[in-house]
Amino acid sequence: MSANDEDDDDEDDDEDDDDQIDWAAAFPTFTAAGGATTVSNFTSLGLIQPAANLAGAALTEHMNGKAVFQRTFTLHEVAPLWNNVRCESCHLGGGRAGLPRVNATTGVLTPQLLFRVSVPGVTGPHGEPMPVPGFGDQIQPLKVVEGVDAQDDVRGASDEGNFIVRYTEQPSLRFKDGTSVSLRRPTYTFVKTTRDLPAGTLVSPRTGSQVTGLGLLEAVPEATILAFARNNTNNGVSGRPNRVWDEELGMTRLGRFGWKANQPSLRQQNAGAANGDMGITTTVFPIEPGETAVSGLPNMSDQELKDLTVFTQTMGVPAIRNNNSPEAQLGAQLFVKAECTSCHVPAMRTGTLPGRPEVSNQLIAPFTDLLLHDMGPDLADNRPDFLATGREWRTAPLWGLSLQQTVHGHTNLLHDGRARNVLEAIMWHGGEGANSRKIVTEMSKQERDALLSFLNSI
């Protein structure tokens, strides 16, 4: 177990004064968002670059892991029910889920979503959401077609069914200067194939998130994250950590990864995604979705899982750009003024991640506190996940925003992709984010443009 995996509750969590920086003042000269891992590739491949300080055997491990990330698993390897056949299909170029597509039959715009489901009012033995009998904890919309050759990518409708997504434009939100923005509210309709979801089933849509910089987040000391939780109790902001189950260690640990911080490590995050999204078994999760017993060897070997984990730990973070622009510099000041830094903490130092010196002891700018925050009723999925309530989400890291359009081909944000751009994402903030949203609505257009210029530079 790594040093930052230990329970640091009893440690002296006082932050070193040298770690605290005036972000608005530092922004004009701060470019190395990922410390020594920072890369300056601003093409469509900018979010899938190896860390700049990676070399030798470590670089070879990274490239081996990239091959697993981009590998297409055959239909004889995936479980009978699945969502996709490649990691990169949901994290294109290391970024967020792919461009929304239009259903040719219904004409409905459908983001690349998966749907977690659980039974209301009860939890599993470790506090996790209770799977739905006959469905498990995730809807698998596709199934292997019997008799089809493994090399043919043929997909059939699953017995589990799927969801149709429809959007309704809400009345426009007006800013103080008289301009407005329209938000689209999604509704989800389950379309069964052979059976209904049980009444009351809790459903949570999730879109594939950016994987860049995850190793640096894994290296942030637990004490640092807990200090954030103690310090951000002003102005209605009170982030708190999730505590989740570590399958291999057999203990509860701090959650860091996933939309609700429901995974404690990148190894378990990768193994869980392989299992839930592709039906790929590992020694961490040896049972296929919908099954109750282990059968046969894992579809992904321990070496492949190790390589994949190294890959996700050692990706380079894109450098901050255009920070010499007066508009972006004003935006950095407004970001602080709007109290966005209460949750989107600009800078912190990583600790030591054993075996990964590249991400250890780095000053980074991820713009997250890795804590859960109540985002209000509009963004609530009403589905608890360990300690996370149905209104809470982990603060999403913001680094890489400047490359979103270039890499992803879209600018959709939030857990279900409902926000079509950064401004809409801000306007969806409620709960602990409501005061920041209010401050932004009172800005002039020039100020909002400066704020967006800042956000689109990181």
The SSE order reads: HHEHEEEEEEEEEEEHHEEHHHEEEEHHHH
Given as residue ranges, the uncertain stretches (5+ residues, pLDDT < 50) are 1-18, 146-155
Strand order, largest beta sheet: 1-6-7
Major sheet: size, sense and barrel closure? 3 strands, antiparallel
Can you walk through the features of this model?
It is a single chain. The protein starts with 22 loop residues before the first helix and ends with a helix. The chain is an alpha+beta fold. The protein has helices spanning 23-26, 56-69, 87-90, 214-218, 222-231, 266-278, 302-313, 326-337, 404-408, 422-427, 434-441, 445-455, and strands spanning 81-82, 101-102, 109-110, 113-123, 129-130, 142-144, 155-157, 162-169, 173-174, 180-181, 184-191, 202-207, 243-246, 251-254, 348-349, 363-364, 372-374, 392-394. It contains 12 helices and 18 strands. The strands form 8 sheets. It has a 3-stranded antiparallel beta sheet. Strands 5-4-12 form a 3-stranded antiparallel beta sheet, with no helix packed on it.
